[in-house]
Design brief:
Low-confidence stretches: none
Shape: elongated
Strand order of the largest sheet: 1-3-2
Structural class: mainly alpha
Number of helices: 3
Mean pLDDT: 89
Strand content: 5-15%
Order of helices and strands: HEHEEH
């Protein structure tokens, strides 16, 4: 069974609703990384700018823009405990 296929339904058990396939989630994640790295986010707080800079983000203090490299985002995700489903 591939990742995009669903396991067979078990009688009497509710089946989880899957709106997006794993491939869809991967595509959204990849585009999100692109936005965070190329477009960035506006951050008003000076302390937050310091934290982002210390964490490896590119910080433009004058424009108050933070651009976060994909590897920094991936490292932060990897440091999080897994969800209930093990991801």
């Amino acid at each position: 069974m591939t990742e995009d296929q669903h396991p067979p339904a078990q009688a009497g058990l509710p089946q989880p609703l899957e709106v997006l396939r794993a491939a869809d989630l991967d595509a959204i994640h990849a585009e999100t990384l692109t936005v965070l790295e190329q477009t960035g986010v506006f951050v008003e707080d000076d302390e937050a700018l310091d934290i982002f800079a210390d964490g490896g983000a590119r910080v433009d203090r004058e424009a108050r823009m933070v651009r976060i490299p994909g590897e920094v985002v991936e490292a932060a995700i990897a440091a999080c405990p897994p969800d209930d489903d093990g991801r």
